[in-house]
């Protein structure tokens, strides 16, 4: 294998690809990879159909189609009072994260990553030739440890360039508190760090409030805020994302993005603009539906004798299965026809949460009921 491919192969197949393949192979209920089993709002789907039929089928401008760019500016202003200098549309949040890290970090730089973390973060840091410095958040509350964060930054001896924040947080389902974000902000300002913030679950908050780091004093000028349409509007396959923030940070991201995919998804960009302009009540309805699913699966897990850690946001519940979670998940399809993910895969420190399993609850109530029944059968 050529050296670069060998290095990347060391990162392995994504856990989501693996788990969905396992679910398909075994016919199990897939509570592994997080994607809804229903479509997003019909007005959004219609907007995509109309754009397809309306001749919006050629390359988009590199920064994104004007209708979506304007909708993103309006969204940031109306929801959070933010006035970013620039906006860039990307192929999902994933491409924004990759382009930002590669555009903003040089080989030898270090990046603070709060673990557990979404799998693409460490891969993208590796693509940039940079090194992650992990700050571990531990169950049951996964609170940010300010001392651990300061030690990680200081341990970098000036090499730490950026902090990658994710709130609401995958896989823990936590929504960072204002105090935690202020701690991160203080460190960013003191050490002159860039804050790359992944907010794809911004509208899936059941308890508490989503606070974009860019809204904190001194942070708008050093934060690149990333989100996408997939989670908020149940269209994960569309892969329309964006970043916004200071012109220099967006420009660095755009420089990389233009050579990764240039610009595309034109009809879906138009539909994403329609999604962002939906009345707030529609966003609230989607969130309330999901809250009910969270509660349903939490109840089901508890009834099955597992100990769910009730998440404040996202698609995911972590539950303590009281035994080695990797083993437990490996045999789960054959034992009860369910696929779920051991939370340790999201950690560099494999001993931090050895008995936790991540379950996705973005499924129809009847699917959750069936899954809960199967899990209850395990302990029977
Ligand atoms: N960040 C986090 C934390 C995620 O869970 C996901 C999952 N899809 C992404 C980014 C990727 O978003 P997108 O599908 O828009 O690329
Ligand atoms: N964000 C989803 C999850 O954490 C999956 C994304 C992916 O498949 N890469 O389950």
Instruction: Give the oligomeric state.
Output: single chain
Placed side by side, the strands forming the largest sheet appear as 2-8-7-6-5-3-4
The major sheet is characterized as:
7 strands, mixed
Radius of gyration: 20 Å
**What string gives the helices and strands in order?**
HHEHHEHEHEHEHEEHEHHHEEHEEEH
Quickly give the structural class: alpha/beta
| Bound ligand species | 4'-deoxy-4'-aminopyridoxal-5'-phosphate, glutamine
Mean pLDDT: 96
Strand portion, in percent? Answer: 15-25%
Portion of residues within helices: 40-55%
What's the shape?
A: globular
Number of helices: 14
Give me the count of strands: 13
Distance between the termini: 49 Å
Poorly predicted residue ranges: none
Reconstruct the topology from this structure.
Blueprint: H1 3-9, H2 15-26, E1 29-30, H3 42-53, H4 66-80, E2 86-91, H5 92-104, E3 110-115, H6 120-127, E4 131-136, H7 146-155, E5 160-166, H8 178-191, E6 194-198, E7 223-228, H9 229-232, E8 240-245, H10 247-260, H11 266-276, H12 280-303, E9 307-309, E10 316-320, H13 325-336, E11 338-339, E12 341-342, E13 356-360, H14 365-379
Helix pairs in contact: 3-11, 4-11, 5-6, 5-10, 7-8, 12-14
In short:
With 380 residues, the protein is an alpha/beta fold. It contains 14 helices and 13 strands.
Structure description:
It is a single chain. With 380 residues, the chain is α/β, with parallel strands linked by helices. It is built from 14 helices and 13 strands. Strands 2-8-7-6-5-3-4 form a seven-stranded mixed β-sheet, with helices on both faces. The chain has a four-stranded antiparallel β-sheet with strand order 9-10-13-12, covered by helices on one side. Helix 5 packs parallel to helix 6 and helix 12 (280-303) packs parallel to helix 14. 4'-deoxy-4'-aminopyridoxal-5'-phosphate binds at residues 92-94, 118, 166, 170, 198, 200, 228, 230, 236, 239, 241.
